[in-house]
């Protein structure tokens, strides 16, 4: 089995004006595709090539491969972007259990947003900001490069099941926002797919 680029469930211009069409198109068809191609070429001749990307993450710590760092960066890129696209949609509303948990654990949605923005802004260089579920405790964390919390603490420096993820690589925003990373981060709130996030809380 080899991985393939997942279709988006929306058009490249669907997230305008927050995420622009050109960035979305390049990000999906070039960057994400490249992570997939590299992952497939590494796994081609291994016995790991029958695993789903989630299964691969769950055993990542135990994998022994000469080019494991290259796999970490590219398989991480594949799962991260797959999560990212599904987590974006205009017009959803935070409600239900996820709303209750955010209110209970962070004080309010506004407090949560401000803490997430702070973590994302202070993350140095390329990486991702996450809301993760750590056995019922919601935490805001960031990871470097293409690490995913599902890789486990010894690799990614954190753990938990991702509920929301935001790409902090310049390729995700530079065409539209240039150096204004905070504007990009704040624009994310307009297109978080809260329905998808709520589904992920239950997993
Ligand atoms: Mn990216």
UniProtKB/TrEMBL annotation:
Binding site for Mn(2+): 27, 81, 167, 171
Reaction equation(s) it catalyzes: 2 superoxide + 2 H(+) = H2O2 + O2
Keywords: Metal-binding, Oxidoreductase
Residue ranges of every copy of the Manganese/iron superoxide dismutase N-terminal domain listed in the record: 2-88
EC code(s) of this entry: 1.15.1.1
Organism superkingdom: Bacteria
Pfam families, per the entry: Sod_Fe_C, Sod_Fe_N
Chain ranges of the Manganese/iron superoxide dismutase C-terminal domain: 95-200
Single GO MF annotation: metal ion binding
GO cellular component terms, A-Z: cytoplasm
Record's function text: Destroys radicals which are normally produced within the cells and which are toxic to biological systems. Destroys superoxide anion radicals which are normally produced within the cells and which are toxic to biological systems.
Family: Belongs to the iron/manganese superoxide dismutase family.
Protein name per Swiss-Prot or TrEMBL: Superoxide dismutase
